Amino acid sequence: MSSTWQDDPWGGYYAPTAYDSRRDGLPPDPRTSEGGDTLLGRSVRKFALSGRGVQCREYLANAQLGIFDLLAREDDPDVKQQVDEWGGDTLTWSSLKNPAVAMETFSHVMLFFAIASIFPLSILAVIAVLEEDPHPVLFGLELAFGCFVLYKLARLALDRGWVKDKNDTVFNRRTGMMTLTRKGKRHEIPFVELEAGMRHVLQPPSLMRYHLFLYHRPTGMFAQHPSGNEHPYQVEVEWEYMQQFMDISRPLPDVPMFEPVRHKDPVTAEHDRRTGRPERYWRDMDYEEARAMQDKSRKAAETFPWGLTREEALSVGWQPSGYGEGVADKGQPKGEVAAENAGSSA
Questions:
Q1: CA angle at residue 242 from 236 to 244, to 5 degrees?
Q2: For the chain, does the N or the C end have fewer beta carbons within 10 angstroms?
Q3: Measuring CA to CA, how many Å separate 34 from each of 29, 40, 204, 206, 218?
């Protein structure tokens, strides 16, 4: 995408620490990493991901198509402000370590209990009439009202900014760093030093969810993707997505979320100019069409032989969906598609 690193054709937009796979190579493979023989270290080695580098590129398989509702309101001043403030150069993983997220979760729980109490209260009201004893109803009303008051107080605290929005894990494309909180302090870890594994989390009612787990063996620090997946292949896709996002030798992943900010990232803007990618590829697309494309992308990702390069996968009969990075349907010349495919296999 660019010339040599020393030339810095991007005018200092990216920090010297930004992750460039051509210069830095791939993040370490947990299966061959040495040291850090802790419980977490052994776990990430045991459940290491099979994929190496960016090979499958079926990012649409995991994309949140709900963003189409937001894209439809692109002229809304509030939406424009959100896009401008984000800029597309960071990805954030939120968890209950963030007080604002914890308070948001608490407010939803209180509202749920307040609403859910309506049905049992109606039963208690019938019992109270039959037994001529209002105490059960009064007790139920007190609980429901208390939950609603707690909900309103939580929302007020969030709206007034009394609860700080902090402690998220942040991935910065421009600096190449993952920033996280440990023991009350913020730490920066080079993305290229992270090992990727899969965590299995059993959620009620007896549902297994698979999470992307990133581990920094030298320090023992780690981060877990907050969203669980139904299938292991989705974790492989998520890890490729993170690598593509952080790698400044590649454009931003071509999913709807990034389209309003692609022009802000120099490498991505140059890629789109060179390949003739339509500026409004996703924004001018019908939601149902995008959903059909996503179904094909999921099938392709599910059948990808993880552990092989893209070139090897194609040679054994794997069929991509046609909706990954730099595909011909977005205006990219076939010769450049082939060149990028070959480059990603290196």
A1: 105
A2: C
A3: 10, 13, 36, 35, 10
